[in-house]
Amino acid sequence: MTALPGLGTHQLASPDLLRSTFRRHAAGVAVITARGAAGPVGFTATSLTSVSAEPPMISFGVGTGASSWPAIAEAEHIGVHILGEHQHELAATFARSGADRFGAATAWREGHEGVPVLDDVLAWLVCRIVARVPAGDHRIVLAEVVLGDPTGAGRPLLYHQGRFTALRD
C-alpha cells in the first residue's frame, strides 16, 4: 500500500483490490438459467443490470470458466430471476460449484423457449440473447426481454461483504 497526499492509502490494480472493493457494494441477487444440451443450467449473479428500456434489455457477466458458460455460450434464450430475502438457500445452491442446482429442493418449470423458470421468485424474465461481449475472463451477455412476471411478493435478497443478506428498515 502507498499513501498519496489527500487520497489516503491505495493499492495497485489486482483481483484482490477489485474483490475487496466490491464486497463493500451491496448488490441484488439474481439467478440466470438456460437450457443446456445435458439439461438445465444456472448460476447466481450479482452483476445483473438494466441496460435499455427501448427495447427492454438487460446485461450480466459470466465467467468463461463457469460450469454454466458452455450452455450460455450456445443458448438463444435465458431466464433471469430476482430472488427474495427468503431465498438464501436457493442463491447458495446456484452459487456452489458442483451442486445439484435443479434437484428436488429447487422448484422450477419449463417456460417459454424451454427456459427453466424458478418458482416463488420476486420477478422473472425470459430474454433472447443478442450479444456476448468479451471482457477479460468473463463475457458480458446482452439480452432483450421477451416476457416475464414482476408480481412476486416480498423483499429482495442482497449480497454484501461476501454473504447473502436482506434490507433493513
Automatic annotation (TrEMBL):
One of its GO terms (biological process) is pyrimidine nucleobase catabolic process. It holds the Pfam family Flavin_Reduct. It comes from the Bacteria. Keywords: Oxidoreductase. InterPro entries: Flavin_Rdtase-like_dom, NADH-dep_flavin_reductase, Split_barrel_FMN-bd. The keyword Oxidoreductase applies. Residues 22-166 form the Flavin reductase like domain. GO terms for molecular function: FMN binding; riboflavin reductase (NADPH) activity. PANTHER family: FLAVIN REDUCTASE (PTHR30466), FMN REDUCTASE (NADH) RUTF (PTHR30466:SF1). This is Flavin reductase family protein. The lineage of its organism: Bacteria, Bacillati, Actinomycetota, Actinomycetes, Kitasatosporales.
